[in-house]
Write a structure and sequence with these properties.
By secondary structure, the protein is α/β, with parallel strands linked by helices. The chain has a single domain, classed as Transcription Regulator spoIIAA (2-Layer Sandwich), CATH 3.30.750. The protein is 44% helix and 33% strand. The chain has 5 helices and 5 strands; from the N terminus they run E-E-H-E-H-E-H-H-E-H. The protein has a 5-stranded mixed sheet, with helices on both faces. A hairpin with a 2-residue loop joins strand 1 and strand 2. It starts with a strand and ends with a helix.
């Protein structure tokens, strides 16, 4: 079974999620619950750091697609950072760079919320 976990921290009102492991059909529920919890608390400025994300499947990508509209309707956004070339390739194949801000660095993503 896949190993996956999320740690999070609050950076001046911006929630940063650090994904660790493999995000697939078995583990996608963990990310889904994290997004649901944030949205429920009206926390919609979200940075997802993918530095330690080893693998993502279509089920994992589906979680991002399922919640982006809810976040943006609440005047927030989900920004993705620190992807390995392998993980970025999966996002790129499905056109995510046209839908999401994908930045090289977590700090740049945080600053993009405060300095649009």
């Amino acid at each position: 079974m896949s190993q996956f976990n999320i740690t999070s921290d609050d950076r001046h009102g911006i929630d940063v999620l650090h994904l660790v492991g493999e995000l697939d059909a078995h583990t996608a529920g963990t990310l889904e619950e994290a997004f649901k919890s944030l949205i429920h608390r009206n926390r919609t400025r979200i940075v997802v750091n993918c530095q330690n994300l080893l693998y993502i499947s279509s089920a994992g990508l589906g979680v991002f697609m399922a919640y982006i509209e809810d976040v943006r309707e609440r005047e927030g956004d989900i920004k993705l950072t620190n992807m390995s070339p392998k993980v970025y390739h999966v996002f790129d194949l499905l056109g995510f760079p046209a839908l999401y801000d994908i930045l090289d660095d977590e700090t740049d993503a945080i600053h993009s919320f405060t300095n649009p």
